[in-house]
Design brief:
This protein is mostly helical. The protein has 5 helices and 2 strands; from the N terminus they run H-H-H-H-E-E-H. Strands 1-2 form a two-stranded antiparallel ribbon. Strand 1 and strand 2 form a beta hairpin. Helix 1 packs across helix 5.
Length: about 110
């Protein structure tokens, strides 16, 4: 899969989105990430691997721990892609709004 597809696939899971929200506050260990979830460390590690594969996080090694940190560049690529479509739909809705205003104005003048 291409990087953008990997990003959206990783973001499709609500647990992974919650993990990203936690990492937006700062670097965290697997134990710290697992704390608010009803899941084991290995289950969190699987989610972290998906996020890491998508480039959304990176992990380092500090002694026996592998803290994770958010990597915003992959999120920016997804945001930029979405922004293109937002501009498209904003233009379409602006055109529709102008058309409806014109219809309303013409209906009032009759």
């Amino acid at each position: 899969m291409d990087p953008l597809s990997n990003t959206f696939a990783a973001l499709a899971d609500p647990t992974r989105r919650a993990i990203l929200a936690r990492l937006a506050l700062g670097e965290a260990s697997v134990g710290e990430i697992a704390q608010p979830f009803a899941m084991s460390g290995p289950a969190v590690t699987k989610h972290l691997k998906v996020l890491e594969h998508a480039g959304l996080i990176s992990r380092s090694r500090v002694a026996q721990q592998r803290p994770a940190r958010l990597e915003p560049a992959a999120l920016k690529a997804a945001s930029d892609w979405i922004a293109e479509y937002r501009r498209f739909w904003d233009a379409k809705f602006d055109g529709l709004d102008a058309y409806l205003n014109e219809l309303q104005k013409n209906g009032e003048s009759k």
